[in-house]
Each structure stands twice: as structure tokens, then as C-alpha cells.
Specification:
mainly alpha
């Protein structure tokens, strides 16, 4: 007999896990949509619970509370779009029309002479900067194409903005029942208890994470808008909104936002670029070391080095999406490991030592 029973079971188990991993990879786009629907449900769940408790019509009727929250959210978003939508669209179209000529000025070195003339650079300094830009022309164009590719990819998935809220309705309505049904599938009581504790901590962590990200992105959008508009920065409004949305991506998002703002100012020969750089640096320090720790608190319990490692690994595995999901995934692994270790320690049987 080539394989014994034990070895055959191990081989079959590995094959099953391999097939499951292949199926998950093949369906990764669908799974990502469901994952964002779950995060959206976590965002709205406190509002649904409050409406269900406060409204006499919605008590014991969660579906009605969900409908009321969605209606209120639609009214608020509609009012915001009516208020700022035309300005956002006009500045976005203007930036799109101007960007090709700005890039052409950058790659040819013309923008260097314009900025040098405004800031009083010496002739030798302007020549050195122009040579540097010319030498790295291909790298600049490669980065532009890279960001353009991801922007086009996001535009192709704009239908997610419709699908995700619809799927979130099912998680808001039946999420608890789904979780309990999955826990009940386990055969042993101790295993069910372990999974229940892991699920409870994951629920608290994910809900806190998504709400904290919304608050931090809102703060940044307000600050970016106030600073850029008051300084009469070119394309101030569209840059502020885009930079606020980038705050959702940990570590990489704020860096990309700062680079985008400074790049547009450099290409348009904005005269007070140094002031903007100082303000962005000061806001980054305040956001990361004052506001974020107080909002995030200790729910994630991740060391900064672990967070950076997670972001880098997530970017290598799944690009921008991996960067965004890296922090909650790392926190979820920490929670799972914590409860699994406690489970194993409590399962150990101590035998008396022989005299």
C-alpha cells in the first residue's frame, strides 16, 4: 500500500483547500463587492439600530428602519450633490482639459523656467532642474500612465456604487442570523464558543474601523477645502474632495493626496507652493498623532510597524484594494490568533508529575 489512511486524509485535505483557494481567487471580484457591502452595512448599522429603537413605527420592524435610514441618506446625498455637484464637475472637466498641456510643459522643461522666473532661481539652478526633468521624463510618464490606469479601472467599476448598497440591505437585515447559522454548523460546543467570540470581536473592530475612516476622511476633506480655497489654489475644490477620498486608503492615500496637490501646484506655477507644503505637513502630523489615535483608540491594537508591513504586503498582493483592506485584515488575524491561543491554552491537560 503506497499511502496509509492518515497520509491520504492529509493529501485530500490539502487538495480541498487548494481547490477552495482557486475558486476564491477566480471569484475575487465578486467577493470584493460583498466585502465592501459588509463594510457599508457596518457603517449604517448604528443608525438603523437607533431608528429602530426611537421610532414607534420601526420597533420590532428592522426592515422599516433600514428603509428610513436609506431614505434619509438619499436625501442628504442628493442635497450635497445639488449644492456642490456643478462646481465639482466644472473643475474636474477643466482639470481634465488642462492636464495634457501641463504634462507636456513638464516633460519639455518649460514649466521649470516659468517657476524659476517667478521665484527668482538662478540660471544654473533652472538648467540643472530642467536637465533632471528631462532625464526622468520616461519615469514621469510611466507614473502618469500608472495612475491613469487605476483611475480608468475605478471608473469601470462605478456600478459598484449601486450594487454595494443593495447588498448591504441583506446584511443589515439578516446579518446576525447569518452569523449565528455559520457558528451553529460547528460540531462541538467549544468550537462554537471560540468562533462566537472571534466573530464578536471582529464585528466590534470592523464597525469601529469603518466609522473611524469616515470621520478622519471628513476632517481631512474640510481642512483641504478650507486651506486650498482660502489660498486660491488652482482646481482647489476638486483636489480637496479627491484628497479627502484618498484618506480612506491607509498610509498610501494621504501620501498620494499630498503628491497630487503639490504636483498640480507645481505644474500650474502656483507662487505659494512652500506655504501649502508646510500646511500639509502640519496637518499630517496633527491627523496622525493627535486626531487619529483619539478616534481609532485601541480597537485595532496594531503596532505602527505592523501596519506599515500590512500596507506594503497588501499593495504587493492586490494593489490599491489590498492597501485599503490590509489594516482590517491584519487586525482580524490578530484577533483570530488571540482567541485561538487562549483556546489551545485552555485545552491543555496537565498531568501530575511522578515523584
Amino acid at each position: 500500500m503506497i499511502l496509509d489512511v492518515r497520509t491520504a486524509r492529509v493529501v485530500i485535505t490539502l487538495m480541498v483547500f487548494g481547490v477552495a483557494a482557486a475558486l476564491l481567487y477566480a471569484a475575487r471580484r465578486t467577493l470584493v463587492v460583498f466585502l465592501f457591502a459588509i463594510l457599508f452595512a457596518y457603517l449604517l448599522d448604528p443608525a438603523v439600530a437607533w431608528v429602530q429603537h426611537a421610532s414607534p413605527l420601526s420597533k420590532q420592524k428592522r426592515a422599516l428602519a433600514i428603509a428610513q435610514v436609506y431614505a434619509a441618506l438619499g436625501i442628504v446625498l442628493g442635497a450635497i450633490l445639488i449644492w456642490i455637484g456643478p462646481l465639482l464637475i466644472s473643475q474636474g472637466e477643466a482639470l481634465g482639459r488642462t492636464l495634457p498641456s501641463l504634462l507636456d510643459k513638464l516633460t519639455t522643461g518649460q514649466v521649470v523656467w516659468e517657476i524659476g522666473a517667478k521665484h527668482g532661481w538662478s540660471y544654473n539652478t533652472q538648467v540643472r532642474v530642467e536637465e533632471f526633468v528631462r532625464e526622468h521624463r520616461e519615469d514621469i510618464l510611466a507614473w502618469v500612465k500608472y495612475f491613469g490606469f487605476y483611475a480608468a479601472h475605478l471608473a469601470e467599476n462605478i456600478v459598484w456604487l449601486v450594487i454595494i448598497p443593495i447588498l448591504a440591505i441583506f446584511f443589515l437585515k439578516d446579518g446576525r442570523e447569518m452569523s449565528d447559522a455559520g457558528i451553529d454548523l460547528l460540531p462541538r460546543h467549544r468550537n462554537r464558543e471560540l468562533l462566537a467570540r472571534i466573530t464578536e470581536d471582529l464585528n466590534a473592530m470592523l464597525a469601529h474601523f469603518i466609522r473611524s475612516q469616515i470621520i478622519l476622511a471628513g476632517f481631512s476633506t474640510v481642512i483641504y477645502t478650507a486651506v486650498l480655497v482660502s489660498l486660491r489654489y488652482p482646481f482647489a475644490f476638486v483636489l480637496a474632495v479627491a484628497s479627502g477620498l484618498m484618506e480612506f486608503v491607509p498610509v498610501v492615500g494621504p501620501l498620494a493626496a499630498a503628491i497630487s496637490i503639490l504636483s498640480v501646484g507645481f505644474l500650474t506655477s502656483y507662487p505659494h507652493l512652500g506655504v501649502v507644503l508646510l500646511i500639509l505637513g502640519a496637518w499630517r502630523i496633527i491627523q496622525d498623532y493627535v486626531i487619529s489615535p483619539r478616534i481609532m483608540g485601541g480597537k485595532l491594537e496594531l503596532h505602527p510597524l505592523a501596519a506599515i508591513l500590512a500596507v506594503m504586503a497588501g499593495g504587493e498582493i492586490a494593489g490599491v484594494l489590498g492597501v485599503y483592506l490590509s489594516i482590517p485584515v491584519m487586525a482580524a488575524l490578530r484577533i483570530t490568533w488571540k482567541w485561538a491561543r487562549r483556546y489551545l491554552e485552555s485545552s491543555q491537560v496537565s498531568y501530575p508529575t511522578a515523584a
